[in-house]
Design brief:
The protein has 310 residues and is an alpha/beta fold. 27% of the residues lie in helices and 12% in strands. The protein contains 10 helices and 8 strands. The two termini are 29 Å apart.
């Protein structure tokens, strides 16, 4: 969180924790983000490059700044504790690595959003979002699939402006399949030529750690399983409020119920073999995108029963 790090890390850590029989809810990450200052002035959340981070002291220096917030007694692979590893660590450039007393921002890199559009959560790297988009309401421009996005995003006739919210469906664990790093939906060419460099973009996909902008990803449940994302239509108003952790589709419940009744699940990409196994047994992003049968039986029942109730 102090480095504006990877949204992918959350999927991995959730999956590892659940393999050990322990739940790791998204709220844990949001709580950590709220109490961890953002210290690293590194792209995409800052202006410096990775080599300048290294020259400023690198990971050990950043950890040294965070030492009061760390579990210093934890044993590490060096055979020493965290605190022992950091004895000689020092920050060499305060423009690159800030102190806890003078952070770039009071909160960490990733925020967990909730609302009717992502009842099981969605992620945004808030330190990489343009300031004017951290609270935003706009009308949806919907792409039903990655192929639809590729076909139409640069169409001169696309009904889109800088206030629009770009929505990509069916790019999640089951829908894509396998949740590729395509959540950095490109800015339409006709807006790029006008100098527009950031817009609110929402998907059930992932992003690279180098991705920049108002990118809402890991929306759960994904569109392919009937999550609210599947029900979004062109022109719907969507509200984002990062400080309030809100992501809301401003459509009446009765209308959403009507759309849900008419919705049909997309055909699976595979009808046999590993592809079908993946489709039938992969978990959603908030549960680590792991196979359900690799979790301990008791935790698997608890998680899946909870998902059915939701």
């Amino acid at each position: 969180m102090a480095s504006g790090g990877s949204t992918n890390a959350i999927i991995h850590l959730v999956a590892i924790s659940q393999r050990l029989g322990r739940k790791l809810p998204l709220e844990t990450f949001d709580d950590i983000s709220r109490r961890t200052p953002f210290l690293l002035n590194l792209r995409p959340s800052g202006k410096y490059q990775m080599e300048e981070y290294f020259e400023a002291g690198g990971v050990p220096a950043l950890m040294k700044e965070l030492e009061p917030l760390l579990h210093g007694g934890c044993l590490t692979v060096t055979g020493r504790t965290v605190t022992e590893n950091l004895v000689q660590a020092v920050t060499l450039d305060r423009e690159v690595i800030r102190s806890v007393a003078e952070p770039l921002d009071r909160e960490g890199g990733i925020a967990v959003l909730r609302g009717n559009l992502a009842p099981d959560g969605a992620l945004i790297k808030q330190t990489a979002v343009s300031a004017h988009l951290k609270r935003h309401t706009g009308r949806a421009v919907v792409f039903e699939s990655p192929a639809d996005l590729q076909l139409r995003i640069d169409d001169p006739e696309l009904a889109v402006d800088e206030h629009s919210v770009l929505v990509l469906k069916n790019a999640g664990p089951k829908g894509a399949p396998a949740m590729p790093e395509i959540g950095q939906i490109p800015i339409p060419q006709k807006l790029l030529v006008r100098g527009i460099r950031d817009m609110v973009r929402i998907s059930d996909a992932r992003i690279s750690g180098t991705s920049y902008g108002a990118l809402i990803v890991h929306a759960a449940p994904e569109a392919a399983v009937g999550g609210t994302l599947a029900l979004v239509q062109d022109g719907d108003e969507i509200e984002l409020d990062i400080a309030a952790r809100r992501l809301v589709l401003k459509v009446p419940d009765e209308e959403l119920a009507r759309r849900r009744a008419a919705w049909k699940a997309p055909e699976p990409h595979y009808d046999r073999g590993y592809g079908l196994l993946f489709h039938e047994r992969v978990l959603q992003a908030n549960l680590g995108c792991d196979f359900d049968f690799l979790l301990p039986a008791e935790l698997r029942r608890e998680l899946l029963d909870g998902a059915k109730q939701d």
